[in-house]
Amino acid sequence: MNEVSIEQSNRVKQSVTSDLLSYLSKCRFEYWPALSFGARLRIVIKSYAVMFMGLFISSLLLKAIDSYVPALFHVPPLMHNDIARLMQSMHGSALTVFLIVCIGAPVLEETICRLPLSFKPRHISLGLSLAALFASGFKLKPEYFMSGNFVVPLLIASSVYGIVQTYLGNPDRYAAERLSLNTKRGFIIFSILLFGFMHITNYQPLHYQVWFLYPLYVMPQILMGWCLSYVRLRNGVAYSMLLHGLTNSVPFLVFLIGHHH
C-alpha cells in the first residue's frame, strides 16, 4: 500500500464518526477512490454502529410515545412488527421474506434514493423512473403480473426515464460539475427526507386524523437515510446497499430467533 493509501486509511480510522456528524453541513463529498476494501468496510461498520445507537434510542422514544396514542387520539397503536406482517402475507416463508427485506428492498431503495447522488444523468433518470414505477402502484407479486396491471406503471416509468434522460443528457442544460455545493446539499437532504417519508407506508392502515404524527414515526428512517447517504458518498452505492441490507438483517434475525422460541 502506498503512502497516500496508508494516510487515507488512517484518516478513515480517526474521522468516520466526526465526518458522519458533519459531512452534510460541511458538504464534504470526496469519494476516496484509493481506499482499500478493508478501509471501506470499516466505514460501513463504524457507520452501522452510529446508526444502530440512533435507531435504538429513537425506537425506545417512539414506543413510549406510541403507548399514549390510543388514549389521546382514539386510534390503535401505530407501531407494529413489519416482519411479522410480511411473514404472514408470505405464508411463513422465511426465505422469501429474507430476499425481500435484506436484499430486494435495500437494492431498490438505494437505487431510488442514493444512486442519483452521483449527480450523473443516467443515475438520476433511473432513480426517478423507479420511484415513479412504484408510486404508480407497481407490485412485485405474481398475481399482479397475471392481472396485466403492470403495463401502465411501466409506461409511466419509461416515460419518466426518457424525459429526464433527454433533458439532463444535454450538456447545454445540465452538467454535474456546474452544480453548486448548496444545490448538491439540497439534493442530498431531499433524498434523505424522501427515504424517510417513503416508509410512512409501513404504518398502514393510515389514520389520517393523526397525520401530524407520521413524520415523527419515520425519524428512525430519516436517521438511517442520513447514514446511508454518507456511506454512499464516501464509498459508492454498493456499500450503502451493503449497510442497508445489514441494518434490515438484524431485526429479521431477531424475529426469527424469537419466533422459533
TrEMBL record:
Membrane-spanning segments: 48-69, 89-108, 120-138, 144-164, 185-205, 211-231, 238-258
GO annotation (BP), single: CAAX-box protein maturation
All residue ranges annotated as the CAAX prenyl protease 2/Lysostaphin resistance protein A-like domain in the record: 94-249
Keyword terms: Membrane, Transmembrane, Transmembrane helix
Gene Ontology terms for molecular function: endopeptidase activity
Protein name according to UniProt: CAAX prenyl protease 2/Lysostaphin resistance protein A-like domain-containing protein
Species per Swiss-Prot/TrEMBL record: Mucilaginibacter polytrichastri
Upper lineage: Bacteria, Pseudomonadati, Bacteroidota, Sphingobacteriia, Sphingobacteriales
